[in-house]
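Standup notes
- HV: blocked on the assembly model, inputs below
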Amino acid sequence: MRRYRLFLFAALAVSGAAAAVDRDAAQLELAQATSAVQSAERDDAVRYAPSDYDEAHAMLVAAQQASDNRAWTEVATYAERAKVGGELASARARQQRAEAATTEIQRSVDTLRAQLATGGSP
Amino acid sequence: MSRPLHRMFLAPALLGLCVSCATVPPGPPPDVVRLQNDLDRLHTDPRIADNAGAELGNADAAVATLARNARVLDARAYQQGVYLSDRLVKLAEASALARYAEQRGTQLGAEREQLLARANTRNASSSSRLYTYSDTATGSRRDELVPRSRAELMAMQNQLGGLESRVDDRGLVVRLGDFMFEPGQSALTPTAQQSLDSLARAMQGQPNATARIESYGAVNDGSATTARAVSVRDYLNARGVDLARIDVRGERMALRSGDERGSRVDVVVQTTVR
């Protein structure tokens, strides 16, 4: 989060921000973004949060292309988006999985309640 | 009205207008208002407010920073700020709702255990009625007219807490959904382990019961799909179910493309009448 705020302040301080991001900072952002998107992939975001994952992945690809063109400000911009997008995809995947598991347990609780109420087997 | 008098009224009016324009600050841009409204909604939702972690604080800080600087940021930085803030708000919401669902799952799991204990107690008193079907085929209650093997399966089903199950022509079919496994892995989640414990106990109580494990997965996911079936078999074995009673056929069923959410493992339990 601190990095996001730093970026905002940096952008504010240097109007246009064109020369505000150097290569090292951009590549650090890119590495963090790559890590976040890979983490989302491990969290099964491809399956549970496909739109969020796809967007994060698209941003990462854009950042990598900008890196190839040595456009460091572009790299930082897209990498920040990819990073937060990857984190969002992971969180959404976790949410979906937790809700699916809870729904399943709720169903079994409802079944047990019904069984106990009727004294029979489903 | 004479010309000097006209000027005398016009000048203060213009001056007043300028002063009012300079002293009344413009409101925040619509994007920022939307983000602030979203944050307000999160703070007033008890599911989120009660489960808010650092993510909500981060979102608060991001939106506050954006709101303070929105009027002086250039268009590019502003758009970046809006994008990041929007995602941070959504991240806070998803993280909190995940925690809420996990806590709710834990509470329901405890409730399920209590209900299961009650169901087992009741089942113990009623099982003899079910098992004596072949001797009392003329019983008047239709729901008692079940073959002994089916009655045994239904008795086992009563012991399965937290597992999606049904008794059909194949036997007692216990379904383990995709979410019962760690993401992208064959390892069982703690919830799945807890649920399989009850299946293992039920099978130990029915020595004549056997299990066939069927794995359903995407075509291009063969080894992972089979590994999940093996994982279930090994867990049941570790909980005291003899391997000779478990058949892992490695039957990997092809799902339609885009139907990956249908990935699952079915445990089909059958009994033989003694």
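- HV (later): unblocked. The helical segments of chain A are 2-13, 23-42, 45-48, 50-68, 72-118. Chain A touches chain B through 49 residues (CB under 8 Å).
- Next: hand off to the docking folks.
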